[in-house]
Write a structure and sequence with these properties.
Length: 247
Amino acid sequence: MTSVACHECDLLQVLPDLPVAGKATCCRCGCTLATRPADPIERPLALGLAALLVLVVANTTPLMGLSAVGRHASTTIIGGAYQMWHEGQEVTAVIVAFCAVIAPAGYLLFLLIVLFAVRRPPAPGWVGGMLRWAERTRPWAMTEVMMLGIMVALIKIADLAKVEAGIGMLAIGVLMLLFPAILSSVDTEELWARVAWHEPDPASDPVAERVFASNPMPDLEPDLQKADLDGRPESANSETPSGRSSS
């Protein structure tokens, strides 16, 4: 059991061990504190493989086609970033390539490596580094922002040329649905629990022994409330919001 502060009412409380497909809610305001997906490994693995295939399709097929005055042209995401670079917009080209291609691909690759490795726990220690990189690249995967920019551009040029959506556009739309599904099905706590870490031995490591001796773990459970599993209030000794001292 771990302690957590509610991000809505700031009440510090203890999270119970969640059952499969269960969730814990705050005993004061009812806000969801934590959830446990029903299938934290196989479902995100299947969604991640599907998203990786869709990402390849989105970056290798035409995004859209333009027809004007008898001339037709089409491009891909990578082709658009390449054209921006040649037109002197290097910064914009790098941002588009990173947020639309590199970051989504990196997040999916790191996540798939982690999911494949933790299927047979305990996973080696280097899997923790892969999981950290997945969490760092996830905020930079901005496929929905790119789609919004494309829609704005299409509206502006609709009166000047005939616009035809390509397979790449449809693939990006599917990718926008797959990414939230992956995020909602991944249980990072379960992934961390399956990683085998090398714990230092205080007897053989004098530095670790001094650190452990100087930083004892406080016992906070008597002063905390227990979060609800089904949204029903549970009895507790006292309410102790985080950041406040109880007299």
